[in-house]
Amino acid sequence: MAGLSALPALKNVNSKRYWGLWRSQKSPDG
């Protein structure tokens, strides 16, 4: 379960990336 400690950081990065793409699609004009 060594990867468990890296999970929060990985999840945070994925969340930022996901929301970045979502916002780009929802408001392409910025």
Q: Which structural class do the helices and strands define?
A: mainly alpha
Specify the helix fraction band: 55-70%
Number of strands: 0
Low-confidence stretches: none
Gyration radius from CA atoms, angstroms = 13 Å
Please state the overall shape, judged from the principal axes of the Cα atoms. rod-shaped
Mean pLDDT value = 73
C-alpha end-to-end distance: 41 Å
Number of helices: 1
Largest sheet composition: none
Q: What portion of the residues fall into strands of 2 or more residues?
A: under 5%
Secondary-structure element order, as H and E? H
Précis, in short:
The chain is mostly helical and 30 residues long.
Descriptive report:
There is one protein chain. The chain has 1 helix and no strands. It is mainly α and 30 residues long. It has one helix spanning 7-26. The termini are far apart.
Which features characterize this protein?
1 helix; 30 residues; mainly alpha; rod-shaped
Task: Write the SSE topology.
Blueprint: H1 7-26
